[in-house]
Amino acid sequence: MKHWFITTDGNLKARWKKAFPEMVASKPDVFVGKTQPDDVIWLSTTVEGWSELIGAVTSKGAIVVVLSYSPDDREALRSLDLGARGYVHTLAAPEVLKQVALVVTNQGVWVGQELLAKVLGGSFKALQQRAEGGDTVNTAPLEGLTDRERGVALAVVRGATNKEVARQLDITERTVKAHLSAIFKKLAVRDRLQLILKLASIVERVPERF
């Protein structure tokens, strides 16, 4: 797995090198044909056509993290919608970059705590309003999953890590990851955040042992 930092001039920053000593800096017209599945592509929004590059890279199985000098919630959500797994300040500290890499390479999403709180807060607010209205919960999204996949999906949406899910269900972390891959495909979601948003209106009204 390589870490590619894509900028307009192909120059690297000392903090990137400190975070990932073996990283590769590249111009946008050079790296696409060289990436491998599971490589992490750190893509600067200063690159012309950066949003179009996200799809080109993720179609090859690589992971994209968008770098911005002026982080913006709308831009962050757009990046995720296009397939990026992360969105972070271009000048983030090496320690932060390492944390981002750890999260996105383990099927997680990084958008920063403030935006994540807004997204999940809005989702659960809608859930609360629906519950207070007495609407019948629609569990249709869960019906296409196996019993074990439902257990994994609901545990993840309730906030469990892969390790915690494995412990709760008495299975290995590798099995949890395999189930998550199947769940993402069946529910047409890309990652944990999209899974949470898709099932947020269900999880609080579904028994723990559904």
TrEMBL record:
This is Response regulator transcription factor. PROSITE patterns: HTH_LUXR_1, HTH_LUXR_2. It comes from Vreelandella sedimenti. SUPFAM superfamilies: C-terminal effector domain of the bipartite response regulators. The lineage of its organism: Bacteria, Pseudomonadati, Pseudomonadota, Gammaproteobacteria, Oceanospirillales. The keyword Ribosomal protein does not apply. Pfam families: GerE. Keywords: DNA-binding. Residues 138-203 form the HTH luxR-type domain. It comes from the Bacteria. One of its GO terms (biological process) is regulation of DNA-templated transcription.
